[in-house]
Amino acid sequence: xxxxxxxxxxxxxxxxxxxxxxxxxxxxxxxxxxxxxxxxxxxxxxxxxxxxxxxxxxxxxxxxxx
Length: 66
Hints:
The chain is mainly alpha-helical. 89% of the residues lie in helices and 0% in strands.
């Protein structure tokens, strides 16, 4: 399972580049650009949420262990 997770993390960079390419593609449909934009924003928002939750959890752990 760790291999699968590592592969997902590695290929996710390629996926983001692909979404960015769609945004920059002058021949892409408006629908494709909107979907790429929506995906990027959704994933960015989730990443910020996870970072916030992680920081809050670390703060709680520090408080509990001290």
